[in-house]
Write a structure and sequence with these properties.
With about 70 residues, the protein is mostly helical. The protein is built from 2 helices and no strands.
């Protein structure tokens, strides 16, 4: 997704036509918003995994028994 944002940025700034540039900037902003959403979801998922591992540790489940 970061590659898509970079590609749209380069393509937008390389355009001379203001209408095309504006359309590419809108696409770029949507890609940035999607990237932010995905990064937040990854962080949330990592927290959930850590909570599961911590809960398993507290319950005495041997390491390696939790599979994701």
């Amino acid at each position: 997704m970061q590659g898509r944002v970079n590609s749209l940025t380069n393509e937008a700034f390389g355009r001379d036509d203001p209408a095309q540039r504006e359309a590419l900037m809108r696409q770029r902003q949507r890609a940035i918003d999607e990237l932010d959403r995905l990064m937040k979801q990854v962080a949330k998922d990592k927290e959930a995994i850590a909570a599961i591992e911590d809960d398993a540790r507290k319950k005495g489940i041997p390491p390696g028994w939790i599979r994701f």
